[in-house]
Specification:
The structure holds two protein chains of two kinds. Chain A is α+β, with helices and mostly antiparallel strands. Chain A has four helices and seven strands; from the N terminus they run E-E-E-E-E-E-E-H-H-H-H. In chain B, a hairpin with a 2-residue loop joins strand 8 and strand 9. Chain B starts with 6 loop residues before the first helix and ends with a strand. The chains are: A alpha+beta, B alpha+beta. At the A-B interface, helix 1 and helix 2 of A face helix 2 and helix 3 of B.
Chain lengths: ~170, ~280
């Protein structure tokens, strides 16, 4: 049966910097000997682990999954997986857009932890509006991917969220 | 002895509180009355519900989840949470419809009988100090009594007040002084609907979208042919909007078109580009 290529991607909850990619293809193609993963950012450049000199990350065809420790912040990415033959000719390609927002999600949840510890925090005029704003940005990034497959808009939301978080002393 | 609520139960209770408070907000009834809920309370309730729900989905055993969930429960307010819990118990957490007609068979009903004391056919007479409402599936703790349009206090001794004893099929009301002929008495309470069918609907994951600046409507493909009655709440930014089935100029409302899953802002209003639209619904 011919190969029907597919893959899934998730962000590690316990180690948010790690992407877990699993090959969920069905069927087979005896000509395929290698796989490559491209993590393209909203600015068109590629995200690769430290020390990688190519735009892609080599993924051994003998292993059905790969864990890539590459997320140094929240990203919206276009992920492409290529299945290639021994001559480096691409046989199959699957591409999709994703968002990885655990840092923002965790920080937002942490705000609720703070409030549940000391409810007087919400008396700060900035706290709740910025908490709501952060929540909106997280959801905006999700919507941009879900409804528009738009990593530029999603990344803009995540970058604004990062700005809120990086300046937490002023914003919360 | 009170039992410890599960995180799932707290999320259900919070969502019912959110729904009821939004429903009653523009009418200043029940949940929104007497400071029970204010718009800012609804906003923080919505935010906290979403945060707890996120963590509960990601890791139900997360170390602080119990603490944040308990805080969410406290946001509901003791009385409102109890009422929401009663509602969930009364309807089993489910809303049941006739699958042919769409008629609500099991959900919430909001009776509000009104009588003139001493009036023709009125069950209330001049001088009465007690009254019993007989009904089915009454939800304890939901009664509000109005005398001549003014909400009566509960269980106070220095002014005209009442006390209430609830049973599933009745509410027995004692007034601390006799009713006066000509008074208009109104009794508001909540009851569960009658169970007749087997088709159930359940709350779906909340939908979100942030329209661009200047847009006047938003379409959710997931809502196509979802009836207005199944839209639980709509937020635009942090402002709750009551969905209605017709065009409106009331900025507190939003027009919903079931056939297309579309929400149109009130005439003259536009999205500002940074407002997230959040819709909770049932299928």
């Amino acid at each position: 049966m011919a190969l029907t290529p597919s893959f899934t991607v998730s962000q590690s909850f316990s180690t948010p910097s790690v992407l877990n990619i699993v090959d969920t293809s069905t069927g087979s193609d005896p000509t395929i000997t290698q796989r490559r993963v491209y993590l393209q950012k909203a600015d068109g450049t590629y995200l690769v682990p430290t020390g990688t000199t190519t735009d892609y990350i080599a993924w051994s065809y003998g292993v059905s999954f790969i864990n890539i420790d590459v997320l140094d912040q929240d990203y919206a990415l276009q992920i492409t997986v290529e299945w290639l033959n021994v001559s480096n000719v691409v046989v199959e390609t699957v591409q999709d857009t994703y968002r990885f927002d655990l840092e923002s999600q965790f920080f937002s949840y942490g705000l609720l932890e703070d409030v549940s510890t000391d409810n007087t925090i919400i008396a700060d005029a900035n706290f709740l509006p910025n908490a709501y704003w952060l929540d909106t940005l997280i959801q905006g990034a999700s919507n941009a991917i879900t409804y528009g497959s738009n990593i530029q808009t999603a990344q803009a939301c995540l970058d604004k969220a990062k700005y809120l978080i990086d300046n937490a002393n002023f914003n919360f | 002895m009170a039992s410890i609520k599960s995180i799932s139960d707290i999320l259900d209770i919070a969502k019912v509180c959110l729904w009821l408070s939004l429903r009653d907000m523009d009418k200043q009834r029940l949940f929104a009355k007497n400071g029970a809920f204010k718009p800012q309370d609804v906003n923080i309730l919505k935010w906290a519900t979403r945060r707890v729900e996120w963590m509960h989905t990601k890791n139900p055993n997360y170390s602080t989840l119990r603490k944040t969930a308990n805080y969410l429960y406290s946001l509901c307010g003791a009385k409102n949470a109890a009422i929401a819990e009663n509602i969930l118990q009364e309807i089993g957490g489910q809303v049941i419809y006739d699958n042919n007609t769409g008629q609500l068979l099991n959900g919430l009903l909001f009776p509000d009988p009104e009588y003139v004391v001493g009036g023709t056919g009125s069950p209330l007479s001049d001088g009465d100090t007690e009254f019993t409402i007989t009904d089915s599936r009454i939800i304890a703790g939901t009664l509000k009594v109005y005398a001549d349009g003014k909400l009566m206090p509960l269980d106070v001794v220095d002014q005209f007040s009442y006390s209430a004893i609830y049973a599933p099929t009745s509410i027995h009301i004692n007034f601390n002084q006799g009713l006066v002929g000509g008074q208009v008495m109104r009794f508001e309470y909540i009851k569960g609907g009658q169970v007749q069918g087997s088709v159930t609907k359940s709350t779906q994951p909340t939908l979100y979208h942030t329209p661009s600046y200047g847009e006047t409507f938003v379409v959710f493909p997931e809502l196509v042919n979802i009836p207005l009655e199944d839209i639980l709440y709509v937020f635009v930014g942090i402002a709750p909007k009551r969905p209605i089935g017709a065009a409106t100029s009331d900025m507190n409302r939003i027009q919903y078109t079931s056939s297309t899953g579309r929400f149109d802002l009130a005439s003259g209003d536009i999205f500002t580009g940074d407002q997230e639209v959040a819709v909770s619904y049932m299928v």
